[in-house]
Automatic annotation (TrEMBL):
This is Diaminopimelate epimerase. It is an enzyme of class 5 (isomerase). Belongs to the diaminopimelate epimerase family. It comes from Paraherbaspirillum soli. The record marks H168, E217 as: Could be important to modulate the pK values of the two catalytic cysteine residues. It is found in: Cytoplasm.
Amino acid sequence: MKLKFTKMHGAGNDFIVIDAIHQHIDFTPAQWQQLADRRFGIGADQMLVVEKPQADGVDFRYRIYNADGGEVEQCGNGARAFVKFVTDKGLTSKRAIKVETMSGIIEPMLEADGRITVDMGAPILAPAAVPFDAAGLSSAVMGDDALWPLEINGKSAWISVISMGNPHAVQVVDDSEAAPVLIDGPLIENHPRFPKRVNAGFMQIVDRHQIKLRVFERGAGETLACGTGACAAVVAGIRRGLLESPVKVRTHGGELSIAWAGSGQPVMLTGPAVSVFEGEIEIAAS
Ligand SMILES: N[C@@H](CCC[C@H](N)C(=O)O)C(=O)O
């Protein structure tokens, strides 16, 4: 079968975006992996599938697949790409759009300057939400947060365990460039304490309103930016008393802005979304 797609990115986190309102999509994990493959396919960190909504009062449903073919709950940079896609394709004329995702409804909004702000909902600070296998671990609980000691590669790191709909394990490092993201990232992602695996964030505090962030993403490896990772890092930094909202997040792929008014409040993520090219690809049966 032939598939029409748009290649997009949000701060360098790249996506294959697919209109599944006008095309029938039913791919196996192996077919998603083929599309995401940077040598044998199109290449992407995630695939975003735009569908008709299932719930009332919602404009669209969008589904997210990691490069490894697994379907996941949430993608912040993807939410912005989604808005640009449905706007450019004339699928909506609304500027504020209600979208169903696997982890609930989010509300992205197209700003006058072309950037997109996404109301990502309130972070879930309890580690049970990640989920995290806490058996046998002692914890230092800060309010309703959990800061967990995690053994990685013979070292103990303090990890903030936060769900933005999808799971994040964030640690503070002195120098994000020198941090062992490619060595410790996969160990954290697959650590037995995270039964559903996790996105591993390495955050350097620059000042109270600015961080540098690298994220080793579950199912995709290190990406140039991770929107939900940026939200989780800022929430972790604010909860630890290191940051104040709003916070500029510097990633290898560009800048994201995060605002969070505190417990129970939604995290607002602002950043760019760019279309790179359109194409059509023959999908091999699998
Ligand atoms: N790049 C994303 C997050 C994509 C999903 C993540 N890898 C997961 O498995 O939870 C973002 O911008 O948030």
